[in-house]
Amino acid sequence: MITHQISTVLEPLTPIPKCGNTLCNKLRKKTRTVSMSLGNENKVVEASERLYLGLDFGTSGARFAIIDKHGTVQAEAKREYPIYLSGESYDWTRSWKETLFSLLEYVPIHLRKQIVSISIDGTSATTIILDSDTGEPLGRPFLYNESCPDALPLVESIAPPNHTVCTGSSTLCKLVSWWNRVGLNRKSALLLHQADWLLWLLHGKLGVTDYNNALKVGYDPEVDSYPPWLVCQPYYHLLPSVFAPGTPITSLKEEIRSKFGFENDCIVCTGTTDSIAAFLAARATEPGKAVTSLGSTLAIKLLSNTRIDDSRFGVYSHRLDDKWLVGGASNTGGAVLRQLFTDDQLEKLSEQINPSQTSLLDYYPLPKPGERFPVADPNLAPRLLPRPENDVEYLHGILESIARIEANAYGLLKELGASQVNQVFTAGGGAKNDKWIKIRERVLGLPVYRANQTEAAYGAALLAIKGHQHNIL
Ligand SMILES: Nc1ncnc2c1ncn2[C@@H]1O[C@H](COP(=O)(O)OP(=O)(O)O)[C@@H](O)[C@H]1O
Ligand SMILES: O=C(CO)[C@H](O)[C@H](O)COP(=O)(O)O
Protein backbone atom coordinates (compact mmCIF):
# COMPACT_ATOMS: atom_id res chain seq x y z
CA MET A 1 0.00 0.00 0.00
CA ILE A 2 1.48 3.37 -0.99
CA THR A 3 0.73 5.88 1.67
CA HIS A 4 1.44 9.55 1.89
CA GLN A 5 2.21 10.86 5.34
CA ILE A 6 0.70 14.31 5.79
CA SER A 7 1.80 15.86 9.02
CA THR A 8 0.43 19.16 10.12
CA VAL A 9 1.59 20.65 13.35
CA LEU A 10 -1.41 22.35 14.91
CA GLU A 11 -1.03 25.15 17.38
CA PRO A 12 -3.41 24.76 20.37
CA LEU A 13 -6.81 25.81 19.13
CA THR A 14 -7.51 27.58 22.37
CA PRO A 15 -4.41 29.46 23.51
CA ILE A 16 -3.38 28.05 26.84
CA PRO A 17 -3.50 30.92 29.34
CA LYS A 18 -0.16 32.43 30.36
CA CYS A 19 0.17 31.71 34.03
CA GLY A 20 2.72 31.14 36.73
CA ASN A 21 1.69 27.61 37.25
CA THR A 22 4.06 24.98 35.93
CA LEU A 23 1.26 22.76 34.59
CA CYS A 24 0.06 25.53 32.27
CA ASN A 25 3.58 26.43 31.18
CA LYS A 26 4.39 22.79 30.49
CA LEU A 27 1.25 22.64 28.36
CA ARG A 28 2.17 25.76 26.38
CA LYS A 29 5.08 23.85 24.85
CA LYS A 30 2.74 21.07 23.83
CA THR A 31 1.86 21.16 20.16
CA ARG A 32 -0.35 18.61 18.60
CA THR A 33 0.27 16.83 15.35
CA VAL A 34 -2.21 15.24 13.08
CA SER A 35 -0.75 12.70 10.76
CA MET A 36 -2.75 11.09 8.05
CA SER A 37 -2.15 8.52 5.37
CA LEU A 38 -4.33 7.64 2.41
CA GLY A 39 -4.84 4.17 1.07
CA ASN A 40 -3.30 2.54 -1.95
CA GLU A 41 -3.12 5.33 -4.50
CA ASN A 42 -2.81 2.75 -7.29
CA LYS A 43 -6.07 1.05 -6.38
CA VAL A 44 -8.79 3.67 -6.52
CA VAL A 45 -11.51 2.29 -4.31
CA GLU A 46 -14.73 1.81 -6.30
CA ALA A 47 -17.19 4.63 -5.53
CA SER A 48 -19.81 1.96 -4.85
CA GLU A 49 -17.60 0.03 -2.41
CA ARG A 50 -18.79 0.04 1.19
CA LEU A 51 -16.25 1.31 3.74
CA TYR A 52 -16.04 0.92 7.50
CA LEU A 53 -14.72 3.47 10.00
CA GLY A 54 -13.04 2.45 13.27
CA LEU A 55 -11.84 4.97 15.86
CA ASP A 56 -9.45 4.16 18.72
CA PHE A 57 -9.33 6.43 21.76
CA GLY A 58 -6.13 5.33 23.54
CA THR A 59 -4.21 6.79 26.42
CA SER A 60 -2.19 9.45 24.62
CA GLY A 61 -4.22 10.08 21.48
CA ALA A 62 -6.86 8.89 19.06
CA ARG A 63 -6.73 7.39 15.56
CA PHE A 64 -9.05 6.27 12.85
CA ALA A 65 -8.80 3.56 10.21
CA ILE A 66 -11.10 3.25 7.20
CA ILE A 67 -11.16 -0.23 5.64
CA ASP A 68 -13.05 -1.99 2.88
CA LYS A 69 -14.75 -5.37 3.14
CA HIS A 70 -11.44 -7.12 2.36
CA GLY A 71 -9.79 -5.35 5.30
CA THR A 72 -7.67 -3.12 3.05
CA VAL A 73 -6.90 0.21 4.70
CA GLN A 74 -8.19 3.13 2.63
CA ALA A 75 -7.22 5.93 5.01
CA GLU A 76 -5.80 6.41 8.49
CA ALA A 77 -5.19 9.43 10.70
CA LYS A 78 -4.16 10.06 14.27
CA ARG A 79 -4.18 13.00 16.62
CA GLU A 80 -2.78 13.63 20.08
CA TYR A 81 -5.35 14.87 22.58
CA PRO A 82 -5.59 18.67 22.87
CA ILE A 83 -5.01 19.71 26.45
CA TYR A 84 -7.66 21.78 28.20
CA LEU A 85 -7.65 22.69 31.86
CA SER A 86 -10.66 22.86 34.11
CA GLY A 87 -9.26 24.49 37.22
CA GLU A 88 -6.15 22.49 38.09
CA SER A 89 -7.17 19.31 36.29
CA TYR A 90 -7.45 18.27 32.65
CA ASP A 91 -10.87 18.60 30.95
CA TRP A 92 -10.75 15.16 29.34
CA THR A 93 -14.34 14.98 28.03
CA ARG A 94 -13.83 18.27 26.19
CA SER A 95 -10.55 16.97 24.78
CA TRP A 96 -12.04 13.64 23.65
CA LYS A 97 -15.11 15.33 22.10
CA GLU A 98 -12.95 17.79 20.17
CA THR A 99 -10.66 14.99 19.02
CA LEU A 100 -13.63 12.93 17.78
CA PHE A 101 -15.03 15.70 15.61
CA SER A 102 -11.63 16.90 14.41
CA LEU A 103 -10.77 13.36 13.30
CA LEU A 104 -14.09 13.19 11.41
CA GLU A 105 -12.96 16.39 9.62
CA TYR A 106 -9.89 14.42 8.46
CA VAL A 107 -11.95 11.62 6.89
CA PRO A 108 -11.33 12.15 3.16
CA ILE A 109 -14.43 13.81 1.71
CA HIS A 110 -14.48 11.48 -1.30
CA LEU A 111 -14.75 8.47 1.04
CA ARG A 112 -17.44 9.77 3.41
CA LYS A 113 -20.40 8.76 1.23
CA GLN A 114 -19.09 5.19 1.21
CA ILE A 115 -18.83 4.74 4.97
CA VAL A 116 -21.73 2.55 6.04
CA SER A 117 -20.77 1.67 9.61
CA ILE A 118 -18.77 3.20 12.49
CA SER A 119 -17.44 1.81 15.78
CA ILE A 120 -15.16 3.13 18.55
CA ASP A 121 -12.88 1.54 21.17
CA GLY A 122 -11.72 3.30 24.31
CA THR A 123 -9.56 2.76 27.37
CA SER A 124 -11.05 0.17 29.67
CA ALA A 125 -12.75 1.24 32.94
CA THR A 126 -12.53 4.91 31.94
CA THR A 127 -15.82 5.91 33.57
CA ILE A 128 -18.11 8.89 33.01
CA ILE A 129 -21.15 9.59 35.24
CA LEU A 130 -23.68 11.57 33.20
CA ASP A 131 -26.99 13.35 33.59
CA SER A 132 -29.35 10.69 32.19
CA ASP A 133 -31.59 13.37 30.64
CA THR A 134 -28.96 15.45 28.84
CA GLY A 135 -25.93 13.15 28.57
CA GLU A 136 -23.81 15.91 30.09
CA PRO A 137 -21.03 14.67 32.41
CA LEU A 138 -21.81 15.30 36.11
CA GLY A 139 -18.12 15.68 36.89
CA ARG A 140 -14.70 14.73 35.59
CA PRO A 141 -14.26 11.16 34.25
CA PHE A 142 -12.43 8.49 36.23
CA LEU A 143 -9.50 7.42 34.00
CA TYR A 144 -8.65 3.77 33.24
CA ASN A 145 -5.76 3.54 35.72
CA GLU A 146 -7.32 5.69 38.47
CA SER A 147 -7.88 3.83 41.72
CA CYS A 148 -10.73 4.43 44.21
CA PRO A 149 -9.59 2.42 47.27
CA ASP A 150 -12.27 4.12 49.42
CA ALA A 151 -14.91 2.02 47.67
CA LEU A 152 -12.98 -1.28 47.73
CA PRO A 153 -14.19 -2.60 51.12
CA LEU A 154 -17.85 -2.16 50.12
CA VAL A 155 -17.29 -3.68 46.67
CA GLU A 156 -15.46 -6.66 48.24
CA SER A 157 -18.42 -7.11 50.65
CA ILE A 158 -20.96 -7.51 47.83
CA ALA A 159 -18.99 -9.27 45.05
CA PRO A 160 -17.76 -12.91 45.00
CA PRO A 161 -14.18 -13.43 46.31
CA ASN A 162 -11.43 -12.27 43.90
CA HIS A 163 -14.03 -11.04 41.38
CA THR A 164 -12.74 -8.74 38.61
CA VAL A 165 -14.43 -5.73 40.28
CA CYS A 166 -12.40 -6.30 43.48
CA THR A 167 -9.68 -3.84 42.57
CA GLY A 168 -9.56 -0.09 43.18
CA SER A 169 -9.30 0.68 39.45
CA SER A 170 -12.48 -1.25 38.55
CA THR A 171 -15.43 0.63 37.09
CA LEU A 172 -17.59 -0.55 40.00
CA CYS A 173 -15.20 0.98 42.58
CA LYS A 174 -15.35 4.26 40.64
CA LEU A 175 -19.18 4.13 40.60
CA VAL A 176 -19.43 3.32 44.33
CA SER A 177 -16.92 6.06 45.17
CA TRP A 178 -19.03 8.57 43.24
CA TRP A 179 -22.28 7.26 44.80
CA ASN A 180 -20.88 7.56 48.35
CA ARG A 181 -20.05 11.26 47.90
CA VAL A 182 -22.77 13.17 49.78
CA GLY A 183 -25.19 15.52 48.08
CA LEU A 184 -24.77 14.47 44.47
CA ASN A 185 -27.52 14.38 41.91
CA ARG A 186 -28.09 10.63 42.18
CA LYS A 187 -31.52 10.19 40.65
CA SER A 188 -31.02 11.23 37.03
CA ALA A 189 -27.52 9.82 36.65
CA LEU A 190 -26.15 7.26 34.22
CA LEU A 191 -22.80 5.48 33.88
CA LEU A 192 -21.08 5.17 30.52
CA HIS A 193 -17.57 4.19 29.52
CA GLN A 194 -15.37 6.41 27.36
CA ALA A 195 -16.16 4.53 24.12
CA ASP A 196 -19.90 4.46 24.91
CA TRP A 197 -20.03 8.22 25.50
CA LEU A 198 -18.14 9.01 22.29
CA LEU A 199 -20.46 6.68 20.37
CA TRP A 200 -23.46 8.41 21.97
CA LEU A 201 -22.22 11.71 20.55
CA LEU A 202 -22.65 10.07 17.12
CA HIS A 203 -25.92 8.16 17.59
CA GLY A 204 -27.81 9.98 20.36
CA LYS A 205 -29.23 6.90 22.20
CA LEU A 206 -28.15 7.15 25.85
CA GLY A 207 -27.48 4.08 28.01
CA VAL A 208 -25.79 1.61 25.64
CA THR A 209 -22.51 -0.26 26.20
CA ASP A 210 -20.82 -3.52 25.19
CA TYR A 211 -19.93 -6.58 27.29
CA ASN A 212 -16.18 -5.88 27.10
CA ASN A 213 -16.46 -2.37 28.53
CA ALA A 214 -19.10 -3.57 31.03
CA LEU A 215 -16.88 -6.34 32.45
CA LYS A 216 -15.23 -4.15 35.09
CA VAL A 217 -18.53 -2.80 36.44
CA GLY A 218 -19.53 -6.41 37.13
CA TYR A 219 -21.43 -7.57 34.03
CA ASP A 220 -21.13 -11.32 33.46
CA PRO A 221 -20.62 -11.99 29.72
CA GLU A 222 -21.00 -15.75 30.26
CA VAL A 223 -24.67 -15.46 31.33
CA ASP A 224 -25.18 -12.17 29.42
CA SER A 225 -26.57 -10.28 32.43
CA TYR A 226 -25.65 -8.24 35.48
CA PRO A 227 -25.34 -10.64 38.45
CA PRO A 228 -27.99 -10.68 41.23
CA TRP A 229 -25.52 -9.26 43.79
CA LEU A 230 -25.24 -6.13 41.60
CA VAL A 231 -28.90 -5.85 40.50
CA CYS A 232 -29.95 -5.44 44.17
CA GLN A 233 -27.66 -2.43 44.73
CA PRO A 234 -29.17 1.10 45.10
CA TYR A 235 -27.09 2.39 42.17
CA TYR A 236 -28.08 -0.41 39.74
CA HIS A 237 -30.33 2.00 37.81
CA LEU A 238 -27.23 3.90 36.66
CA LEU A 239 -25.94 0.93 34.66
CA PRO A 240 -26.28 0.93 30.85
CA SER A 241 -27.86 -1.77 28.69
CA VAL A 242 -25.26 -4.24 27.42
CA PHE A 243 -24.83 -5.65 23.90
CA ALA A 244 -22.14 -7.66 22.15
CA PRO A 245 -19.31 -5.58 20.63
CA GLY A 246 -20.11 -4.68 17.02
CA THR A 247 -23.89 -4.61 17.52
CA PRO A 248 -25.77 -2.02 15.42
CA ILE A 249 -27.21 0.66 17.76
CA THR A 250 -28.93 3.02 15.32
CA SER A 251 -28.16 5.34 12.42
CA LEU A 252 -25.72 8.22 12.64
CA LYS A 253 -27.45 11.34 14.02
CA GLU A 254 -28.87 13.44 11.16
CA GLU A 255 -27.01 16.60 12.30
CA ILE A 256 -23.72 14.74 12.14
CA ARG A 257 -24.53 12.92 8.92
CA SER A 258 -25.39 16.17 7.12
CA LYS A 259 -22.49 18.16 8.67
CA PHE A 260 -19.85 15.68 7.52
CA GLY A 261 -21.58 14.31 4.42
CA PHE A 262 -21.95 10.69 5.50
CA GLU A 263 -24.49 8.42 3.84
CA ASN A 264 -28.12 8.24 5.00
CA ASP A 265 -27.78 4.58 5.94
CA CYS A 266 -24.55 4.92 7.95
CA ILE A 267 -24.97 3.02 11.23
CA VAL A 268 -23.15 3.29 14.59
CA CYS A 269 -22.21 0.04 16.36
CA THR A 270 -21.20 -0.84 19.92
CA GLY A 271 -17.46 -0.81 20.54
CA THR A 272 -14.97 -2.46 22.85
CA THR A 273 -11.84 -1.62 24.85
CA ASP A 274 -8.57 -0.51 23.28
CA SER A 275 -6.59 -3.64 24.05
CA ILE A 276 -9.36 -5.91 22.73
CA ALA A 277 -9.55 -3.83 19.55
CA ALA A 278 -5.78 -4.35 19.22
CA PHE A 279 -6.33 -8.09 19.64
CA LEU A 280 -9.01 -8.07 16.95
CA ALA A 281 -6.66 -6.13 14.64
CA ALA A 282 -3.99 -8.84 15.03
CA ARG A 283 -6.53 -11.45 13.80
CA ALA A 284 -5.22 -14.15 16.16
CA THR A 285 -7.89 -16.83 16.06
CA GLU A 286 -6.52 -19.97 17.75
CA PRO A 287 -6.27 -20.67 21.50
CA GLY A 288 -2.65 -20.19 22.58
CA LYS A 289 -2.21 -17.15 20.37
CA ALA A 290 -1.69 -13.92 22.33
CA VAL A 291 -1.42 -10.21 21.70
CA THR A 292 0.69 -7.90 23.82
CA SER A 293 -0.33 -4.26 23.33
CA LEU A 294 2.73 -2.07 23.90
CA GLY A 295 0.91 1.23 24.18
CA SER A 296 1.17 3.62 27.10
CA THR A 297 0.43 0.54 29.15
CA LEU A 298 1.27 -3.15 28.64
CA ALA A 299 -1.98 -5.03 28.06
CA ILE A 300 -1.90 -8.78 27.53
CA LYS A 301 -4.61 -10.87 25.87
CA LEU A 302 -4.29 -14.68 25.50
CA LEU A 303 -6.98 -16.56 23.54
CA SER A 304 -8.06 -19.40 25.82
CA ASN A 305 -10.74 -22.06 26.00
CA THR A 306 -10.87 -21.59 29.76
CA ARG A 307 -12.05 -18.48 31.61
CA ILE A 308 -9.74 -17.27 34.40
CA ASP A 309 -10.64 -14.42 36.80
CA ASP A 310 -8.53 -13.60 39.86
CA SER A 311 -8.33 -10.02 41.13
CA ARG A 312 -5.51 -10.98 43.51
CA PHE A 313 -3.23 -10.77 40.47
CA GLY A 314 -5.27 -8.42 38.25
CA VAL A 315 -6.25 -11.31 35.95
CA TYR A 316 -9.63 -11.31 34.23
CA SER A 317 -11.24 -12.79 31.13
CA HIS A 318 -13.02 -10.91 28.41
CA ARG A 319 -15.47 -12.81 26.23
CA LEU A 320 -14.63 -13.09 22.53
CA ASP A 321 -17.59 -14.85 20.91
CA ASP A 322 -17.29 -18.48 22.19
CA LYS A 323 -13.77 -18.13 23.65
CA TRP A 324 -12.03 -16.11 26.36
CA LEU A 325 -9.38 -13.40 26.22
CA VAL A 326 -7.50 -14.02 29.45
CA GLY A 327 -5.07 -11.38 30.65
CA GLY A 328 -4.72 -8.05 32.31
CA ALA A 329 -3.13 -4.63 32.01
CA SER A 330 0.10 -3.54 33.63
CA ASN A 331 0.91 0.13 34.23
CA THR A 332 4.37 -0.48 32.81
CA GLY A 333 4.91 0.26 29.14
CA GLY A 334 5.21 3.26 26.87
CA ALA A 335 4.12 5.90 29.38
CA VAL A 336 7.36 5.32 31.31
CA LEU A 337 9.40 5.46 28.12
CA ARG A 338 7.71 8.74 27.14
CA GLN A 339 8.64 10.22 30.52
CA LEU A 340 12.32 9.54 29.74
CA PHE A 341 12.72 9.66 25.96
CA THR A 342 11.10 11.17 22.86
CA ASP A 343 10.00 8.76 20.14
CA ASP A 344 13.00 9.84 18.04
CA GLN A 345 15.41 9.15 20.93
CA LEU A 346 13.76 5.73 21.43
CA GLU A 347 14.36 4.93 17.77
CA LYS A 348 18.00 6.11 17.72
CA LEU A 349 18.96 4.55 21.06
CA SER A 350 17.22 1.25 20.22
CA GLU A 351 19.28 0.96 17.00
CA GLN A 352 22.41 0.70 19.20
CA ILE A 353 21.05 -2.08 21.45
CA ASN A 354 22.37 -5.63 21.03
CA PRO A 355 19.18 -7.60 21.76
CA SER A 356 21.01 -10.92 22.17
CA GLN A 357 22.93 -9.50 25.11
CA THR A 358 21.25 -9.84 28.54
CA SER A 359 20.91 -6.59 30.49
CA LEU A 360 21.86 -6.98 34.14
CA LEU A 361 19.81 -3.92 35.09
CA ASP A 362 16.74 -4.92 37.05
CA TYR A 363 13.96 -2.31 37.07
CA TYR A 364 10.21 -2.21 37.61
CA PRO A 365 9.35 0.65 35.18
CA LEU A 366 6.17 2.48 36.25
CA PRO A 367 5.12 6.10 35.46
CA LYS A 368 4.04 6.52 39.10
CA PRO A 369 3.35 4.26 42.11
CA GLY A 370 0.68 1.63 41.49
CA GLU A 371 0.50 -1.61 39.50
CA ARG A 372 -2.52 -3.61 38.28
CA PHE A 373 -1.08 -6.82 36.75
CA PRO A 374 0.67 -9.29 37.16
CA VAL A 375 1.12 -7.70 40.59
CA ALA A 376 -2.06 -6.00 41.82
CA ASP A 377 -0.58 -3.43 44.23
CA PRO A 378 -1.82 0.18 44.14
CA ASN A 379 1.26 1.23 46.14
CA LEU A 380 3.99 -0.54 44.15
CA ALA A 381 6.77 2.01 43.67
CA PRO A 382 8.56 2.51 40.33
CA ARG A 383 12.13 1.13 40.24
CA LEU A 384 14.32 2.83 37.62
CA LEU A 385 17.65 3.24 39.41
CA PRO A 386 20.63 3.00 39.24
CA ARG A 387 20.74 4.94 35.95
CA PRO A 388 23.92 4.15 33.98
CA GLU A 389 25.84 6.93 32.24
CA ASN A 390 25.04 5.45 28.86
CA ASP A 391 21.43 5.94 27.71
CA VAL A 392 21.63 2.96 25.33
CA GLU A 393 22.40 0.75 28.32
CA TYR A 394 19.64 2.42 30.33
CA LEU A 395 17.00 1.92 27.63
CA HIS A 396 18.18 -1.66 27.12
CA GLY A 397 17.65 -2.31 30.85
CA ILE A 398 14.18 -0.75 30.80
CA LEU A 399 13.02 -2.65 27.68
CA GLU A 400 14.39 -5.91 29.12
CA SER A 401 12.74 -5.26 32.50
CA ILE A 402 9.37 -4.64 30.79
CA ALA A 403 9.93 -7.89 28.86
CA ARG A 404 10.48 -9.70 32.19
CA ILE A 405 7.15 -8.32 33.48
CA GLU A 406 5.51 -9.58 30.27
CA ALA A 407 7.12 -13.02 30.79
CA ASN A 408 5.93 -13.13 34.42
CA ALA A 409 2.43 -12.23 33.23
CA TYR A 410 2.26 -15.08 30.69
CA GLY A 411 3.75 -17.46 33.28
CA LEU A 412 1.05 -16.44 35.77
CA LEU A 413 -1.75 -17.10 33.24
CA LYS A 414 -0.33 -20.61 32.69
CA GLU A 415 -0.17 -21.25 36.45
CA LEU A 416 -3.81 -20.17 36.78
CA GLY A 417 -4.89 -22.69 34.12
CA ALA A 418 -5.19 -20.68 30.90
CA SER A 419 -4.31 -22.28 27.53
CA GLN A 420 -0.53 -22.49 27.01
CA VAL A 421 0.71 -19.48 25.00
CA ASN A 422 2.63 -20.53 21.86
CA GLN A 423 2.83 -17.33 19.80
CA VAL A 424 2.80 -13.62 20.74
CA PHE A 425 1.77 -10.82 18.38
CA THR A 426 2.59 -7.23 19.22
CA ALA A 427 0.36 -4.18 18.83
CA GLY A 428 0.63 -0.55 19.89
CA GLY A 429 3.35 2.05 19.57
CA GLY A 430 6.06 -0.27 20.90
CA ALA A 431 5.43 -2.78 18.10
CA LYS A 432 7.64 -0.70 15.79
CA ASN A 433 10.72 -1.48 17.86
CA ASP A 434 12.41 -4.50 16.23
CA LYS A 435 15.15 -4.69 18.88
CA TRP A 436 12.49 -4.84 21.61
CA ILE A 437 10.76 -7.67 19.76
CA LYS A 438 14.04 -9.62 19.74
CA ILE A 439 14.65 -8.91 23.45
CA ARG A 440 11.12 -10.11 24.20
CA GLU A 441 11.60 -13.29 22.14
CA ARG A 442 14.71 -14.10 24.18
CA VAL A 443 13.11 -13.33 27.55
CA LEU A 444 9.74 -14.98 26.76
CA GLY A 445 11.31 -18.00 25.02
CA LEU A 446 8.54 -17.74 22.43
CA PRO A 447 8.18 -16.55 18.80
CA VAL A 448 7.18 -12.87 18.90
CA TYR A 449 5.86 -11.03 15.84
CA ARG A 450 4.62 -7.58 14.99
CA ALA A 451 0.95 -7.92 14.07
CA ASN A 452 0.16 -7.07 10.46
CA GLN A 453 -2.17 -4.43 11.81
CA THR A 454 -0.82 -2.88 15.00
CA GLU A 455 -3.47 -0.18 15.46
CA ALA A 456 -6.54 -0.76 17.65
CA ALA A 457 -8.48 1.50 15.25
CA TYR A 458 -8.26 -1.33 12.69
CA GLY A 459 -9.91 -3.66 15.22
CA ALA A 460 -12.68 -1.10 15.78
CA ALA A 461 -13.22 -0.97 12.00
CA LEU A 462 -13.58 -4.79 11.98
CA LEU A 463 -16.36 -4.34 14.58
CA ALA A 464 -18.01 -1.83 12.23
CA ILE A 465 -17.97 -4.53 9.51
CA LYS A 466 -19.46 -7.05 11.98
CA GLY A 467 -22.23 -4.59 12.89
CA HIS A 468 -23.06 -3.83 9.28
CA GLN A 469 -23.29 -7.54 8.47
CA HIS A 470 -25.72 -7.94 11.44
CA ASN A 471 -27.75 -5.08 10.09
CA ILE A 472 -28.24 -6.37 6.58
CA LEU A 473 -29.17 -9.93 7.58
N1 LIG B 1 10.44 3.09 18.92
C1 LIG B 1 9.70 2.86 20.03
N2 LIG B 1 10.06 1.89 20.89
C2 LIG B 1 9.33 1.63 21.99
N3 LIG B 1 8.22 2.33 22.32
C3 LIG B 1 7.83 3.31 21.48
C4 LIG B 1 8.54 3.63 20.31
N4 LIG B 1 7.89 4.68 19.70
C5 LIG B 1 6.84 4.99 20.48
N5 LIG B 1 6.80 4.18 21.54
C6 LIG B 1 5.85 4.22 22.65
O1 LIG B 1 4.53 3.96 22.15
C7 LIG B 1 3.61 4.59 23.05
C8 LIG B 1 2.42 5.06 22.26
O2 LIG B 1 1.80 3.90 21.74
P1 LIG B 1 0.23 3.95 21.45
O3 LIG B 1 -0.18 2.60 21.04
O4 LIG B 1 -0.05 5.12 20.57
O5 LIG B 1 -0.26 4.30 22.93
P2 LIG B 1 -1.75 4.57 23.49
O6 LIG B 1 -2.73 3.96 22.52
O7 LIG B 1 -1.72 3.86 24.80
O8 LIG B 1 -1.88 6.03 23.62
C9 LIG B 1 4.33 5.75 23.69
O9 LIG B 1 4.20 5.68 25.09
C10 LIG B 1 5.78 5.62 23.26
O10 LIG B 1 6.68 5.72 24.34
O1 LIG C 1 -4.44 -0.05 30.04
C1 LIG C 1 -5.49 0.31 29.56
C2 LIG C 1 -5.63 1.55 28.73
O2 LIG C 1 -4.84 1.47 27.62
C3 LIG C 1 -6.69 -0.51 29.76
O3 LIG C 1 -6.73 -0.88 31.08
C4 LIG C 1 -6.56 -1.69 28.82
O4 LIG C 1 -7.55 -1.52 27.86
C5 LIG C 1 -6.74 -3.01 29.48
O5 LIG C 1 -8.07 -3.19 29.84
P1 LIG C 1 -8.93 -4.33 29.10
O6 LIG C 1 -8.16 -5.61 29.31
O7 LIG C 1 -10.26 -4.31 29.81
O8 LIG C 1 -8.97 -3.96 27.67
Please specify the SSE layout and strand pairing.
Blueprint: E1 6-10, H1 22-28, E2 32-38, E3 51-57, E4 61-68, E5 73-80, E6 85-86, E7 89-90, H2 92-105, H3 109-112, E8 115-122, E9 127-131, H4 152-158, H5 171-180, E10 189-193, H6 194-203, E11 208-210, H7 228-231, E12 241-243, E13 248-251, H8 254-260, E14 267-269, E15 272-273, H9 274-282, E16 289-294, E17 298-304, E18 316-320, E19 323-330, H10 334-340, H11 343-351, H12 391-415, E20 423-427, H13 434-444, E21 448-450, H14 456-472
Parallel strand pairs: 3-8, 8-14, 8-15, 11-12, 16-20, 20-21
Antiparallel strand pairs: 1-2, 2-5, 3-4, 4-5, 6-7, 9-10, 13-14, 16-17, 17-19, 18-19
This protein binds adenosine-5'-diphosphate and ribulose-5-phosphate.
Ribulose-5-phosphate is lined by residues 58-59, 123-124, 144, 273-276, 295, 297, 299, 329.
Give the assembly state of these chains. single chain
| Global Rg | 22 Å
Query: What general form does the structure show?
Result: globular
**Unreliable parts:** 1-31
Helix/strand-derived class? alpha/beta
Instruction: List cofactors, ions and other ligands.
Output: adenosine-5'-diphosphate, ribulose-5-phosphate
Cofactor: a divalent metal cation
Enzyme class: transferase
Family: Belongs to the FGGY kinase family.
InterPro entries: ATPase_NBD (IPR043129), FGGY_C (IPR018485), FGGY_N (IPR018484)
Please describe what this structure looks like:
This protein is an alpha/beta fold and 473 residues long. The protein has 14 helices and 21 strands. It has helices at residues 22-28, 92-105, 109-112, 152-158, 171-180, 194-203, 228-231, 254-260, 274-282, 334-340, 343-351, 391-415, 434-444, 456-472; strands at 6-10, 32-38, 51-57, 61-68, 73-80, 85-86, 89-90, 115-122, 127-131, 189-193, 208-210, 241-243, 248-251, 267-269, 272-273, 289-294, 298-304, 316-320, 323-330, 423-427, 448-450. Strands 1, 2, 3, 4, 5, 8, 13, 14 and 15 form a 9-stranded mixed β-sheet that branches. Strand 3 (51-57) and strand 4 (61-68) form a beta hairpin. Helix 9 packs across helix 14 and helix 12 crosses helix 13 (434-444). The longest helix is centred in the C-terminal third of the chain and has 25 residues, at 391-415. It starts with 5 loop residues before the first strand and ends with a helix. The model is unreliable at 1-31 (pLDDT under 50). Bound molecules: adenosine-5'-diphosphate and ribulose-5-phosphate (5RP). Adenosine-5'-diphosphate is lined by residues 58-61, 295-296, 334-335, 337-338, 343, 346-347, 350, 428-430, 432-433, 436. Adenosine-5'-diphosphate binds at residues 58-61, 295-296, 334-335, 337-338, 343, 346-347, 350, 428-430, 432-433, 436.
